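Notebook, p. 212. Picked up where the previous page left off. The plan for this session was modest: take the two constructs that came back from the sequencing core last week, fold each one, and keep the raw output in the notebook itself so nobody has to go hunting through shared drives later. Recording the first one now, exactly as returned: residue sequence, then the C-alpha cell string.
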Amino acid sequence: MNFRIKSLDDTLANAERKSLKRSLGAFQLTMMGVGAIIGTGIFVLTAEAAQKAGPGMMLSFIIAGFVCAVAALCYAELASMVPVSGSAYTYSYAVMGEMIAWVVGWALVLEYAVAGGAVSVGWSNYFVGLMDRSLGIDIPEALTKGPFAGGIMNVPAAAIALLVTWLLVIGTRESASVNAVLVIIKVAALSVFVVLTVPMINGDNFQPFAPNGFWDTTGLGIAGAAASIFFAYIGFDAVSTAAEETTNPQRNIPIGLIGSLGICTVFYLVVAAGVIGSIGAQPVLNDVGMAVAPGSAEFAAICAQPQHAQALACSGEPLAFALDMLGWEKVSQVIGLAAFLALPSVILMMLFGQTRIFFVMARDGLLPGADTLTKVHPKFNTPYVVTLITGIAVTAFAAFFPVGVLADIANSGTLFAFLAVSIGVLVLRVREPNRPRPFKTPAVWVVGPLSLLGCGFLFFSLPLATQLTFLYWLIAGLVIYFAYGYWKSPLAKPRA
C-alpha cells in the first residue's frame, strides 16, 4: 500500500492559494472553544453519569478531562506548526499519509455532524418544554419527534439547524460574536448554579462513592461514565479547525485550545460536586437490586415508577431538577432557559468544524466537485457551498433521527481523531526535529503516549455496539476513498 504523504510545506502552500479571511483572535477562539464544549454534556449527561457511576462521576470528569488535556497539548503543537483549516485531518495527511487522513476526516464526521444533529434534537426538547411551561403551548409529538421516536418530523430541531447554517453563511466573525454572547449566558447560569448548590453540599451524599465499580462490560462504572462524559468535552478541537481564519495563529490557537479546556474542566468539577453533594446521585436499581444502562427500555420503565420520580438519574434536565429539589423553582426555570439559549452555540461550533474539514478535504481533491465545494462567498468570505450542504445534511439528521446513543457514537469518532494527533506529534518530532514549533508540547514523550493510551482506554470503555458501529463507518469510508479519492487525488499524479 502506498501511503502518499503531502509535506507540510505543500500543505501550507496549497492553503495560501485558496485561503480564508483571518479575523479571529485569542479571546474569540477561547470563547469558541467554551461555546463548543459547554452544552449538552453538562446540562444533560450529568444524569446519565449518575446512573453509570453515582458520585464516582467526579472521578469520571477528571479522567475525561485529563485525556482531553494531554490531547489538547498535542493538538496545540500541531496547530501552531500548521495553521491551516482541517484539524486532525490536515495533520494526519502531512504525517501519516492520505489514506489515514481520509479515515480521520471520515471519523470527524461522527464528531461534528452526528453531535450537531444530536444537540439540535436536545435543543428541541428544551424548546418544547419552554413553550409548555412559559406559554402553555403544547406542540404535538408528531412535530417534535422523528419517525424512529414515534413522530413524523422534529420541526424545532430542523429549524435550529437551518438557522445556525444561515448564521455561518453570513460570516465567521458574526458567528463568533453571537457565540460569545451565548457563552456568557451559559457561564453565568452555571455560576449561579454553583453559588446555590455548593453551600448545600452534604458529605454523606458522596457515599457509596462508586456503587457500580470502576469498569463494566455493559458500560456502567466510572470508566463507562468517563467514556460518555467525554461528550461533555468534545468540541475544543474545533478551535484548531479555525486556524486559517485566525490572526497570529501560532500564538492564538494554543491559547484558545488550552484556555477553553481549562475553563470548562473547572466548571464541570464544581458543578458535579454541587449536584452530588446537594441532592445525591445514586443510580436507580431494578427489582433484583442491579443498576441498568441508561437509555435502555428497562431503564425507562424503572424511571417511570413513582419511587424513582425524585432520582437525579431519571431527570432529563439534571441541573434544573437539582434546583427544584432544593426549592429554587424560579431559578431552575432560568437555568432551563439558559440551556435553551446556550445549545445553539454548540450546534454552531459543530457545523463550523464540519464545514471547515469538508472544505479542506475538497481542496485536497478527495471529494467530488472540489471546485464548487471550495467556493468562497464574494461578500461574506465564507465557504458557503460546503456550509449549505453540511447544514442541510445535519438538518435532515436532526429532523428524522433520535438522540439515542449518538453521544457515544460521536465520542468514537473524536477519540479516533485524537489517537491520530497523538501519534502525529511524536512522528514529527522524529522526522522533522528542526522544524519551527511556536508551541512545543511539554514532556512530549510522556504527554504523547499518555494521550494515546488515554484515548484508547476511553474508546474501549464505550459499549461494544458503539465500537462496532464505528468499525462499519470506517469500512464505508474506505470504500468511498478507494472508489474516488484515491484515483482523483493530486498525489496520484506524477509530478512534472
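Okay, moving on. Second construct, recorded in the same format:
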Amino acid sequence: MSANEIRLIENIPQVSLGLIAVSRDCFPMRLSQTRRDRVLSLLDKHDLTVHSAETIVENEVDAKMAIAEIKAQGANALVVYLGNFGPEGPETLLAQLFDGPVMYVAAAEESQENLISGRGDALCGLLNASYNLALRNLPAYIPEYPVGDADAVCSMILEFVPVARALIGVRGLKVISFGPRPYDFLACNAPIKGLYDLGASIQENSELDLLVAYRKHEGDKRIPDVVADMTAELGTGNDYPDVLERLAQYELTLLDWYEANKGASRSVVFANKCWPAFQTEFKFVPCYVNSRLAARGIPVSCETDIYGALSEFILACATLQAPTLLDINNSVPQDMYDQHASVVKPYQLTDLVMNFHCGNTSMCSLKQDTAAMKYQLIMKRSLEPDTKPDITRGTLEGTIKSGAATLYRLQSSADGKLRSYIAEGEVLDIDPRSFGAIGVFAVPEFGRFYRHVLIEKNYPHHAGVTLSKAGRTLFSITRYLGVRDIDYNQPRSVLYPSENPFS
C-alpha cells in the first residue's frame, strides 16, 4: 500500500473481470480451453475477481451464451482471449453485446515441438478481429504487443484492470458544480457537451444552493467526530483549531449532497467556485476539505473547473492514489537552480516548474514535517489586509513529496473537441521557499512542452497531478475514450508540429 493511496474507495468502481475464450471451428477447441485455464490459474494468485465463461465461443449463439454467463456473475469488464485463430465475427460481437470496456489478447505458440496439431495462429486471428472491430465501430483495449504465453497474458490483463476501472468510472460519473467560473479564470470554462460524449453528466448548481445547505448543517451532531478526525490528521500542523468546526460543517454538507444527488450515477466529483464571495459568506476557504475528499476518492476541483475534476477522477481510478489539481504556476529562479546543482542534474532550468495551489493537496501527498493548516495569503491581502486571518483560513500547505509524478488533463476545447496531455516527470527534493501546497517539478523538455502543447493548444493553468508514473495507463484510457489528440513532453529529437525547426 503506497503512502498516498486512497483511504476509502466507495466512489471508485471495482473491476469484476469476465474472461471469454474463443476458438475457430476448424481449430481444436482444446487449444483455447487449455491455454485459457493456464491464464486463469495465474490470475488466481492475484487479488482480482475473474469470472470465466464455460462456453468457448465458436459462433454467434455461443457469443450470446458466454455474455449471459459472465453478466450473470456480475462482470463489468471483459477480456476476449484468442486461444487460437478465433472466429472474427462472433468474437467481435462479444464487444457489441457487452456493456463495458473490452480487451482483446491472443495466445502465443508454446513449443517448436508442437507446431502442427498444436499451432493456434492467434497472431493471425487478432488481425482479423481488429478489422471486424473497426467494421462495427467498436473501441477495444489492445496491449502494445497483444500476443503472449500465459505469464505474459496474465500481465497484460493486470495492466488492463486500472484502464477498465477508469473507463467504468467515467461512464458512470456525475460532475456536480457550484457556481459559475470566476471571470478572471475563464480558461477553466469549457463546453459541457464533451462530458456527455464521454458518458459522464453534470449537475450545475448555484453557490446559494451550497450556502443554504451549509447553514442547514449548523449544529450537526456529526461535527465533533469530523473535527476529531481533522485534528488527528493535522497533528502538530493544526495552527488554527478554532476554524475546524466550520470546515467540518462544510465537509458534511458536501458529503450529504453527494449522497442525495448521486442519482443514477455510479460516482461523483465536485467542481466548486471557491472565491471571491466564498470567504465572506462561508467564513473560511474550502481547500483543506477539498484535500480530504480527494484522499477518499472524491476529487473537488477549484474555480469550478469541471474538466479538472474529471481529470483528477481519472487519475484516482488509474492509480488508486489521491490526486491533486495544481496550477502550472511559476518558473524556478536561476539562483535556486544553481544552489541545488546536485539535485537538478541532468535537467535544464527550463525543464523545471513550480506547481502550486492554495492548499487542496491531500496530507498524504505532502512532506509531513511541512504540512500545516494556514490561511490563503493572496486572499488575505484583499479581504483582511490589516487584521489577523479569519475568513481566509482553511488551506493545507506544505511541500509536495519528492518522487515520480505525472501531469494529466482531459479538456474540451472552445469548439467542443476533446484533447488531452500526459507528461511524466518527478518532484525534486528542493524546498520551494514559498507558500501554498507547492513543489519543484522536473519534466523533461518542459519548456518546449509548455510552448507547443499548453500554450499552442490553449490549455488552462490547472493540471491534474498524481505522484506516480502513470503515463502508460493514462494513454490507454484516453485513447479508449475516443480522444485522438493526445500530447506528451516530446524528446528534443522529435519536433512538435508548431515548433520552429531553426530554433
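Notes on construct two before I forget. The mean pLDDT is 95.
Flagging for discussion at group meeting.
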